[in-house]
Amino acid sequence: MGKTMKKLINLLSIIIVFVMMSCEDNNGDSSNNEMPIKEVTTTNVNDAAYYFNLAEGSQNANLWHLAYQNMDVGGGFAMPSFSLSNSAMLAVESSMDFESIQNSPAPNSFAPEGGRMQYGGSNSALTYNMTTHQVSVSSDTYIIYDTVSHKVFKVHFDDYSSGVVIFRYAELTSK
Question: How many CB atoms lie within 10 A of CB 171?
């Protein structure tokens, strides 16, 4: 019985060593590129302007990157519109979907927003259809570079309903 017990202990030891070696530590696994994506629901723009700080991940009227407010378009009409702070630069990605964008574009891709994402701008985040009287969101992804923190964020506007917008964003890594 002593030999059998010794063989059993050896076999058990081998199994334990094998199990321990086959366990994998994924903490440093670079193939896991899951980027945390945050979803934000704004307040109703008809109640008040909404200012959002992408780095903090919160509403902040004093230190913001993204502003959502009604813009006077003449004739007594106002349209919901997004704009960036003066400390933010913009690049617009229209050929890749939001989820596929993993890295920040080259620094020379960014330029001042200059009204491009505002209502009526060349890359307006929100558009108004005069025929259907509906506000819709752009399919573009907006890449925003904060010149103060040097962080880069991707932003995609998903839905507009009665003055409230839902958007997603994530911080991008440098190439």
Answer: 18
d(CA 94, CA 143): 11
Q: Can you tell me the distance from the alpha carbon of 32 to that of 12, in angstroms, rounded to the nearest whole number?
A: 34
List the structure tokens of 89: 């630069």
Q: Which residue is it, tokens 């202990």?
A: 9
Tell me how far CA of residue 72 lies from CA of 53, 64, 75, 76, 152, in angstroms. 24, 21, 9, 7, 30
**What's the pLDDT tens digit per position in 12-67?**
666 665 555 555 554 444 445 578 999 999 999 999 999 999 999 999 999 999 99
Give pairs for 54-57: CB < 8 Å, separation 24+: 54/144, 54/146, 54/151, 54/153, 54/155, 54/169, 54/171, 55/146, 55/149, 55/151
Residue 22's H or E segment, with its range, is helix 2-22
* Pair of tokens at residue 158: 């998903």
Token code pair at residue 151: 């962080």
Of residues 113, 57, 69, the one with CA closest to residue 87? 113
3-state DSSP call for residue 73? strand
End-to-end CA separation in angstroms for the chain? 64
